[in-house]
Write a structure and sequence with these properties.
Two copies of one chain form a homodimer. Chain A has 182 residues and is mainly α. Chain A is built from ten helices and no strands. The structure holds a DNA duplex (18 and 18 nucleotides). Chains A, B: InterPro entries: Homeodomain-like_sf, HTH_TetR, Tet_transcr_reg_TetR-rel_C_sf.
Chain lengths: 182, 182
DNA sequence: GTCTATATATTGATAGAC
DNA sequence: GTCTATCAATATATAGAC
């Protein structure tokens, strides 16, 4: 029983990771359950066995992705507020993050999908976002600063990904880095 | 000929407006061509006659929506930079804008769809975005300030729409208003 | 220019075998 | 728990009538 539970949980984690990456890359609404499952090497039946519905899968993806993101923020030891912010922002507002949404933050990739989801899904996201905001506020000192910080970096990534040229992408990221660190 | 051209152009505008509203509300990738056309009281045949493909429709929607947005920014006479920014931001970062994406800005609603579109579509968006940035930079003085301004308000709207509770939505918008005006 | 009808593919979800 | 097979619905796109 213990062994089976562990196996199920592990498979669930694999599915979540692969489906999350596929959703961030292609869009959640735009990607079928078959494709989401195939990304993890299983079929749609496995998705419904684990999550019940496509919406249920999105809820789980949100929790999984946001927790992973928070773990990354925290992993960086804070020598000072300035260096912490500068380092994290350099990682977030980078060309690598523009080019690889599948391994990046959920928010710029899927927030629009979440906005169109039903209330329970938005509640799941809200809980995760508030937790992120709290942890950033602890570092930056003020509550409002954290919201401004989050809006700034998410907005910059959303806009940078929507344009074609490297030059404009770089302009947007550079300006935004200045806004949150300088 | 002149009359027919005028009629065609008018129908095209009607279609663009209705399809744009439907896309902003439900998502572009998530909405079928039939539904996009039905929003304008026509069928999918009309869409293909005017725009050739679903992608062609998105290109036209981007131009139409971004031009309308710029026209609104400009309509407000600038008595001073501060009052202009404060007024426009109050309109943008408002509950009405959260609740009615169909009549709001294209960017928070569709930038993620644009980011996943082919290069020509992203080029169309880039041209429009640069124009918007230029006009805002003229008012704010600095180029970078305009990018920061745009990233801030788009990011705030994206996040505010993705959460459920009015309280958190208000927190996000209030903080963001402070960032760009205060 | 717009309609209806249609073609082919894919959607979210379920049933039953194993 | 995961598979294959399958359901009705919908996807993008085209063809031909008017």
């Amino acid at each position: 029983m213990r062994y089976q539970d562990g196996y199920k949980d592990q498979k669930r984690r694999e599915l979540l990771k692969a489906a999350g990456a596929a959703a961030k890359k292609k869009g959640f609404a735009a990607t079928g359950v078959d494709a989401l499952a195939e990304a993890a090497g299983v079929t749609s039946g496995a998705v419904y066995a684990h999550f019940g519905s496509k919406a249920g899968l999105l809820d789980a993806v949100i929790v999984n992705e946001m927790e992973r993101s928070r773990a990354r923020w925290s992993r960086n030891p804070e020598r000072s507020v300035e260096t912490w912010a500068a380092e994290e922002v350099a990682r977030y507002l980078s060309r690598a993050h523009i080019d690889h949404p599948e391994s990046g933050c959920l928010m710029p990739a899927l927030a629009a999908d979440v906005a169109r989801a039903a209330a329970p899904t938005r509640q799941v996201f809200e809980d995760q976002l508030k937790q992120a905001q709290r942890e950033i506020a602890e570092r930056l000192g003020e509550k409002d600063k954290a919201w401004q910080f989050l809006s700034q970096i998410v907005g910059a990534m959303v806009l940078a990904r929507a344009v074609v040229s490297d030059d404009v992408q770089d302009e947007i990221l550079a300006a935004s880095r200045d806004a949150v660190t300088g």
